[in-house]
Amino acid sequence: MPTRSPWTCVLWDVDGTIVDASDGILRRLTIALEHFGKRPPTRAELVHWIGPPMYQSFQVNVGMTPEESAEAVAFYRGLNKTDGYATGAKLFPGMGELITDVAAAGIPQATASSKPEVQVVALMDHFDLSTSLTAIVGATADEKTLSAKSDIVAEALRRLAAAGVDTSRPVLVGDRHHDVEGGAERGVPVIFVRWGFSWPHESEGAQAVVDDVDQLRALLLFGEYADGVSDAAPAGAAAGVADA
Question: For residue range 19-35, what is the model confidence (pLDDT) as tens digits?
Answer without folding.
Answer: 998 888 889 999 999 99
